Predict the 3D structure of the following.
Amino acid sequence: MNKTDQFLLWIDDDHQLLDHAVSRLRENGILVLVEPDVDRAIEIIRQRHNEVLGVLIDLMMDPGETLSVYPTEGGYETGFCLVDYLQSEGLLNGLNVRLFTNAQPAVRKYPHEESEYAVKIERKSRYKGVRFLNFVTKEFLEND
């Protein structure tokens, strides 16, 4: 499948704050699907895995029903738990995933750091305006 036929899945419960960034991506020909609900996002990945260009995951958000048994620290580490869940279900294979956070990136050593499932943690404030478009282009379109 051609990368232009794929979409970027952005899992973030602050979706109303993402309108400008999403518009900029779409204006530049990047298909974006914003999903604020973790359970629905998991289903999108499960059903449309081959169409997903990459996944941006907010670190802090409501864990939903699927992750309710995970140690999300009251939602503060939901992004970590979502990556763990996707890996355990075999859904992380072939996905380019980045965790995004408003806070200082977590100091916690990520369990998949040394494996093929390594996930970078990025600070949202580093990527405003054109810098965000450049980040998405570099990380998801130029990366094979």
